[in-house]
Specification:
α6 links the parallel β3 and β4. It is built from 16 helices and 13 strands. 39% of the residues lie in helices and 14% in strands. The protein has a seven-stranded mixed β-sheet with strand order 2-8-7-6-5-3-4, sandwiched between helices. The chain folds into two domains: 151 residues, Aspartate Aminotransferase, domain 1; 232 residues, Aspartate Aminotransferase, domain 2, CATH 3.40.640. α3 runs antiparallel to α12. The chain is an alpha/beta fold. The chain is globular.
Length: 411
């Protein structure tokens, strides 16, 4: 079955506006467009229920119901219980709060493994714990390929390893890691496995109960929703962590690890993601899968197939440019590489490449994308210039990719 791109794009107001539709959006890893289902719920919340939720009067009751629908939608996507979720303002903030919740469990000399491939959100918060006696051990990438080797992780874990923190998919290299294998190594050492799914979640659906992870975080503003971060944890793990919210919220789900007030309207609008995926499922499939998670997984399988085909067209165009260096796997294999492609060109500044593509209404960016340690490890000298990043998602069309390919050929 082929993905109906025209139907998908009909769900997005941005593509109906001539001024915005002329842009081919290839900076989706920085933040995705939002379908009407999410926009409508956000608009309705601000119009009619922008009051303190969970109160006794009608608008407050409806506001609380909208928020609960948002929690249920994210829980359904991950195949977990809503009480296992914390929705904070961003994944970076959620990681910081999580690190503070874990800190009391660590003793001086306990070891934390981080990578130099991750977004800084899943590095900096853990490195700060060295101030309290934690020992940081770095799982390093291959400086040529940008890849992480499982064997290298095995040599890092030991009796004092308490946390293994890694990304399910790099926002630079694009590789989707074998997270089950990584989690097994962590657990064999008696450590928790903590996964950053920000660059994974726009492309694949994760069943957290089958993932092996103990804690999983991702961002909804990169998965077609409002600007929030989702944190999931196993109940048995969450129960051991130090609450970070107000003392009277110590035992309340959603609030225990959220020191700030939740963003009511943005949480309520997340139910629109479920509505959007349901709409796509009903359009593409005749049968009824058992539950939202299963439906989402089938829809995202279609996304992945489409994205991989288009990613390989982009990789081929970059490969044909003299002096091009592609970071990560080439060609793309479905389930192994996300459609997030980073590259550099010998003799041409990344910002100049971006400028020439932007002049053709092709939206891309360059820089280190908060993965500065990865850029440095790859031997890229000018880290402000960094790399050029092209990131596709399911609503990118074959025609848009053709425009991008022509733009790359002109380089």
């Amino acid at each position: 079955m082929n993905l109906d791109i025209d139907f998908i794009r009909s769900q997005y107001p941005v593509f109906a506006n001539p001024d915005t539709a002329r842009w081919a959006m290839f900076e989706n890893a920085g933040g995705s467009y939002v379908p009407r289902q999410v926009i409508d719920r956000l608009h309705e919340f601000f119009q009619f229920t922008k009051v303190q939720p969970y109160g006794p009067f009608e608008a407050s009751i409806k506001a609380g119901e909208a928020m609960e629908a948002g929690y249920r939608a994210m829980a359904g996507l991950l195949n977990c219980d809503p009480d296992e979720l914390t929705l904070g303002p961003s994944t970076t903030m959620n990681f910081y709060v999580l690190a503070q919740a874990i800190r009391p469990l660590l003793e001086p000399g306990d070891e934390i493994i981080v990578t130099n491939q991750d977004h800084e959100a899943n590095i900096g918060c853990w490195r700060r714990l060295a101030e309290f006696g934690a020992v940081i051990r770095e799982w390093q990438i291959d400086p040529q390929t940008g890849e992480l080797a499982i064997e290298d992780l095995k040599s890092l874990v030991g009796k004092r390893t308490r946390l293994v923190c890694f990304t399910l998919c790099s926002n630079i290299v694009g590789t989707m890691h074998d997270f089950n294998a990584i989690c097994d190594i962590a657990h064999d050492a008696g450590a928790l496995a903590i996964g950053d799914g920000v660059s994974f979640a726009p492309h694949r659906v994760l069943d957290v109960n089958k993932s092996g992870l103990d804690l999983y975080l991702f961002s909804t503003y990169k998965t077609f929703g409002t600007h929030l971060g989702v944190m999931w944890g196993k109940p048995s793990v969450l129960d051991t962590l130090e609450p970070q919210g107000h003392y009277f919220n110590r035992d309340l789900p959603h609030y225990k690890f959220n020191p700030a007030g939740p963003l009511h309207a943005q949480i309520g609008a997340l139910a629109g993601i479920e509505e959007y995926i349901d709409t796509l499922y009903d359009h593409h499939f005749d049968d009824a899968a058992p539950g939202f998670h299963a439906q989402a997984a089938r829809v995202f399988d279609l996304f992945s197939e489409h994205e991989t085909v288009q990613a390989n067209r982009v990789l081929a165009a970059i490969r044909a440019i003299p002096g091009a260096r592609i970071i990560g796997q080439d060609p793309a294999v479905e389930g192994s590489r996300a459609a997030t492609i980073a590259f550099t060109l010998d003799g041409m500044r990344c910002s100049d490449v971006v400028k020439r593509l932007v002049e053709k209404h092709i939206a891309v960016r360059n820089g280190h994308f908060y993965a500065l340690r990865c850029i440095e490890a790859l031997g890229i000298q000018d880290t402000d210039e960094g790399i050029i990043r092209i990131s596709l998602v399911h609503y990118n069309t074959e025609e848009e990719v053709s425009r991008l390919v022509k733009g790359l050929e002109s380089l």
